Amino acid sequence: MKARSRNVIPGFGLTMGYTIVYLSLIALIPLSTIFLKTAGMGWHRFWTVIVSPRVVAAYELSIGASLAGAIINSVFGFIVAWTLVRYRFPAKSIVDSLVDLPFALPASVAGITLTAIYSENGWIGRLLKPLGMKVAFTPLGVIVALTFIGLPFVVRTVQPVLQDLERELEEAAATLGASRLQTFRRVIAPALMPAVITGFALAFARALGEYGSVVFISGNMPMHTEVLPLLIMAKLEQFDYQGATAIALVMLVTSFAMLFLINLLQRRSAVRHAAG
Amino acid sequence: MSIEVSNIRKAFGSFVALDGMSLKIETGELVALLGPSGSGKTTLLRIIAGLEIPDSGAVHLGGMEATERSTQERGVGFVFQHYALFRHMTVFENVAFGLRVRPRRSRPSGDQIRARVNELLKLMQLEWAGPRYPSQLSGGQRQRVALARALAVEPRVLLLDEPFGALDAKVREELRQWLRRLHEELHLTGVFVTHDQEEALEVATRVAVLNNGRIEQVGTPEELYHRPATPFVSGFLGNVNLFHGRIQDGRVYIRGMPISVHNGEARKGADGDRAMVYVRPHLLDIQLVPNGKGSFPATVLHINAAGPRVKVELTTQWGDAVRVEIDHDRMLELKLKPDARVYLSPRENRVFTYQI
Amino acid sequence: MPQDEAVFGRPPVSYGDARARMRHATSEAAWARILIAGTALLFLGVFLIIPLVAVFTEALRQGVRVYIAAITNAEARSAIRLTLLTASIAVPLNVVFGLAASWAITRFEFRGKNLLTTLIDLPFAVSPVISGMIFVLLFGAQGLLGDWLAAHDLRIIFAVPGIVMATIFVTFPFVARELIPVMEAAGTEEEQAALTLGASGWQAFFRITLPNVKWGLLYGVVICNARAMGEFGAVSVVSGHIRGLTNTMPLYVEILYNDYDFAASFAVASLLTSLALVTMVAKRIVGGSIRYEALLEGTGDEMEHKAV
Where does chain A have alpha helices with state H? Predict the structure, then answer.
């Protein structure tokens, strides 16, 4: 790879070399084992695993619960971002910092805490019981956990865009006679939509792969509350490496696709953000 | 529609932007609010538009109290300094916006909207731009779109906030003429904010000079330039030379040289009072010998003959910098060269003196 | 232009009574504001504040003495030690990587730069379970290198090296991702100036680059450390859960919980939560510093335009 360096700054060879070696050793080579293992499995075996009923049930739950969590986060995350940027209230700075909690908190801590809260005699579980709603050890619990860990993504993606939104656009709409609601629908929302979508995609992708926060509250019941990462773990514990690897490959391919999609979204919204 | 602001006061924290300002703008005028940064001109404009709420004072639009009406209700067209065009809408949609958000009852039909938008785009010479996005247009074009958008809703008054500030000199010139022509054709009442005195003097029918939240003077461009009421207005409009002098026997003496003055406040001054003398560059005459009526010596530093008139920079024997404007013929007549020693005297009696 | 944002519908005090009804052109009606802010705070209260409080409440449920015992017994100490050891290896290695990668990416143009940047984001796209699994597939008894390792009597999986490697994999993007935008924003002019004055590449790096990016670097270290100490899924796969030997604190929390030793579990969890809180505070401080410095370097023009 020949570098047409921008200038005469030295160090390309050294830094590039180190970066590539490090990446290969710690990431690329280990990741390749997945592909190697599945290659050695043969197509038929691979296919049987990834369409078996238990796995399919896990797909449904994983995708469904992740989608639900991401949607909830898109709606409420937008509202939170709006509140943090546009309104003033006491302790706002603390609340703003708190949004990062799901990101900073270890997954197992989140997992046991959410389980404690939403189990039948937990603080919230207790309130929902008379309504006939059971959260812990049900798919609903999985959704709650995935909502929790995705919370920062939409908020932090929307916040800077909302912050930079020129007030003058809203003023212009007001001088042209638009009501506040009309201004929101026609001027503000379209400008923020790319950020919301990016945040949604980030939350969704993260939720798909989440393990620690979910494993406690879900109960791991196959065909019922088992998400894909839990299923992989279950297979590993039974030393079914082939099965685990097959499912892992499906997850990896999906995640990589999502990663490229998200990068594309981020790049496009950055361009539009800067232009005009 | 006339605009009247009475005794407006507005402070941002401890910074007083407007200090009891009153101004009346008649229907059909194009008034410039002129002043340096921090003078309060944009604040005043925004208060008229309803985008800021004054701490005290009243706003009347068309004779009716408007201080408590929201921006949406005031029917003002506002053009922002950085256009504030809706980035995600086409030019057409931008201009149509005000018409589309009208309540169902008063909303024009799709065809009517289209007709009006096209009419305006044609007026701005931007018929081709309808389907384009703002990012595809130049600064001057974007400003014209912003104008068209504001005009689409047939506002009773047009407010412009430093409309040409962000544009190149040439484009600015063109758009100034645009604005003037537009004003003449549409007979709108217009108020625009600018810090560029040339722009204000060229475009407006009347100019209000603001400074530190107060109005220094309101008048036609001619009045302001030739009959400034305060030292600030003198100094702010056009080039001017400033001298310090003393009042004696009804005359002003600059460094011992008597200057004959017939206007300004020096008439009211007592002997010994200090005075500031403002002399426009074209009101100083250069001579090769002292005349008896009061002239003082100076040395030519630099001559700039690239322009309609010749601009000469000189320095007096006491080190004051002076600028004089003369005709090319006169320069040749005097055979002016750098380092020449000459004598300066005020031409006519339109030198302004202010008591300090 | 300073905007008058009323707090929850109460207009600023200086208005006269009649103006109390009027609101700013770009703010919502009071009821809308209350509804929106109320919803936001309710949502955050349920999802953030309740869990935060719950950790500490559950940890102290059986009293302070049990709490102290839970975090100071031998197994707990071993878990804490292992967690600290892992972080102390993973974080410095990732810092070096972060510096190298961000230097390469922000100082040079080359084909495949986008690919490299995407590759650095790789661990974000990989589920923690898979992150651990790949090392098992590589170094485990039946893994690609399993035989070789057995022959040399080396254990990686179900031992500390495996835990460290899995942690490195999961956390290597953090420092790089913090540094890249900061180094991009700092530009290369100062370094070029240093070079023209005769400095070597290393000197330019240590004396010019590092001080310029210190806040981004500091935050990168803080977040990398927090994730390294808190990683659960990947380490869970790789560690074999051998008590007293290969349990990090997050794993220890799980084990205690599965043993129904809830108070102890939450006690250890509370330590990790405190670390998370420290990380969040650090972000606030460092983030503020970054923004402050950017403000100082910002153009004066913008300030002028705002001041009428």
Answer: 12-23, 29-39, 43-50, 53-86, 92-98, 101-104, 107-118, 123-128, 139-164, 167-175, 180-183, 189-209, 212-218, 228-237, 241-274
